[in-house]
Structures are given as C-alpha cells and as structure tokens.
Design goal:
Layout (H helix, E strand, L loop, with lengths): L4 E2 L8 E2 L3 E5 L9 H11 L10 E5 L4 E5 L8 H5 L6 E3 L5 E3 L9 H5 L10 E3 L4 E3 L9 H5 L5 E5 L3
Antiparallel strand pairs: 1-2, 3-10, 4-5, 6-7, 8-9
Length: 159
C-alpha cells in the first residue's frame, strides 16, 4: 500500500510523511537483546540477531549500549537511491518498507542511508538476496512489546 508519498523525477525532492518512529532510551536498557530475537523470529521465523530489523550494540568495557534501526526519514535517501520503482513502499502506518518481492538486492538503499554506516539499519538477507529494514510491525512493534524495561517505544512523529 502506498500512502503519503510524493515521488518526483528529482531525487532530492522525494518526501514521505512518516506517522510513527521508534525511540530508544539507553539509560534503562538492560542489554538483554530480546528485541533482536523477537524481531527476527516474527519476521524471518528464526532467532538470529543478523536477521533482526533492530541492532543492539553493547560496549561492555565502557558499560554503554546503543540501538540501530530505521529512523523513518521524511526525505529518505534510501528511497531516492532505489532503482526499482516498487521496491520501497509505504505501509499502512506510514513506515517506509522494502517490498521483498520487488527488491533486486543491489544495495543502493543501504549505501545511501546516512544511519547505515555499519550495515545495521538496512541489511541483506543473503538466502533471499533482498534487503530488509524496520517496518514498525504495522504500528505494533514486537520489539516494543517484549522490551522488559520500556527502553524501546513507538512514538507519533510531530509534523
């Protein structure tokens, strides 16, 4: 389903209107990484952090944690760079998602995303040769549901 998307011939003019996004509070995260496992299990049928649409990074030496996931940008460079018209679509809650039926696995989206520096936001499913990223689970993210401390939240985007 395509909603609220204006795609023009000029790549710098592509805009979407995300309605929701994820937030992460590192100060209350307990490093359990349950979010990664439930995400990969619900989307791919396998408990594999690599197949998760969220990546939790724990620096035990400095006692720090961070999370990487799609930021649902209003001017997504990943969408602008995609050479396949229907490979990136807007779902029912306004999240930019990858249509795995149309994705050709070229990786242009992953290269273009400024938040994907270590390949933790847009990832390649090697067995399917398609990229994937957070789709906000149609507005009810399983990572948010399972987080025991509430470190992950889905919030409405201010317009």
């Amino acid at each position: 389903m395509v909603l609220d998307m204006q795609k023009t011939t000029h790549k710098d003019e592509i805009k979407v209107s995300p309605r929701f996004k994820l937030t992460f509070d590192a100060s209350i995260c307990r490093w359990c990484r349950s979010c990664e496992l439930i995400c990969s299990l619900s989307h791919e049928g396998s408990c594999s952090p690599y197949l998760s649409r969220i990546s939790i990074d724990v620096d035990q030496f400095n006692a720090e944690v961070s999370a990487s996931f799609c930021m649902q940008c209003p001017k997504p460079l990943c969408l602008a760079s995609c050479p396949v018209e229907e490979a990136m679509i807007i779902n029912s809650v306004g999240a930019l998602t990858i249509n795995q039926e149309a994705c050709i696995g070229c990786g242009e989206c992953a290269k273009a995303c400024p938040f994907n520096k270590e390949g933790k936001v847009l990832k390649l499913n090697r067995s399917k040769n398609v990229y994937f990223k957070c789709d906000l689970c149609d507005g009810d993210p399983v990572c948010v549901q399972i987080c025991p401390t509430g470190a992950l939240k889905i919030v409405e985007v201010e317009r």
